[in-house]
Amino acid sequence: ISSTSISGTTIANSGDISGGAGMAIDVDGGAASLTNASGGTIYGAIDLTDNADTFANAGTFEAYGTSDFGLGADLLTNTGVVGAERNSGVAGTVTFNGLETFNNAGGLVSMADGQVGDRLVLAGTTFNGTGNSRLALDVALGGPGSTADVLQITGAGQFTGATTILPTDTLAASPGVLNFGGILVVDSSNA
Fold first, then answer.
1. For residue 36, which of 21, 52, 14 has the smallest C-alpha distance?
2. Where on the phi/psi map is residue 111: left (φ > 0), alpha (ψ -120 to 50), or beta?
3. I want to staple 32 with a disulfide (CB 3.0 to 4.6 A). Which of 53, 63, 161, 162 is the partner?
4. How far apart are CA 44 and CA 20, in angstroms?
C-alpha cells in the first residue's frame, strides 16, 4: 500500500498485506495512523511519514529488513504479534529506525524460528513491556560461546516495564552444559 496525503493517512487492515521485495506500507505526507486488527497480517517493512505516526497492532506484523518510522514522536502499540525474520530460513536482522516508543502491551515479540542468530534492532527506541509482555527467541543452551537471537536497543533508547523471556533451546536433544558466561539475549547500554 502506498499513500501520499497532506492531511494524513489512515489504514485499517483485517486481511493480508505483503510487500514482496518492496515495502508492505509506504506513507508520505501528514501523519499516518495504522491499525492491524486481530486476524490481520502485514508481511514486510513499512515506511512512514516525518510526523507523529501511530501503529496499533492487534494482529501479526511479520517484519523483514528495515522499517523506517520517520521523524516525529512515533508510537507502535503491540497487543498481537511482532515477528522478526521468522520465515526466511536464514538468520537475519530486522531494524526499526525512527520509532520513539514501542509499547508491548500484552503482546508477543518473536524471533523464534528454530535457529539462532536473528536480531531485532530498535534504533533509539524506548521499549515498554506492560501486561503480559513476552519475548520469544531461540537460544543454543550450550557452553561458553553459545549464541541466541537478540533484541537490541541502540542509541538513547531503553527498556522499561517488565517482559517475560520465552527461550526455545535449539540444542534440546543434547545434554545441558554449565555456562558461567551466560548468553546475550537482550542488549542495551541504557537498560
1. 14
2. alpha
3. 53
4. 7
Q: List the one residue out of 1, 167, 142, 102 whose CA is nearest residue 94.
A: 102
Q: Are 99 and 126 in contact (CB under 8 A)?
A: no
Cell 485499517, residue located: 12
CB-count burial class (<10 Å; 0-12, 13-18, 19+) for 173: exposed
* Amino acid (1-letter code) at residue 155: G
- Identity of residue 165: I
- Per-residue pLDDT 10s for the chain (191 aa) are 999 999 999 999 999 999 987 899 999 999 999 999 999 999 999 999 999 999 999 999 999 999 999 999 999 999 999 999 887 778 999 999 999 999 999 999 999 999 999 999 999 999 999 999 999 999 999 888 899 999 999 999 999 999 999 999 999 888 878 888 889 999 998 75
**pTM score > 0.85 for this model?**
yes
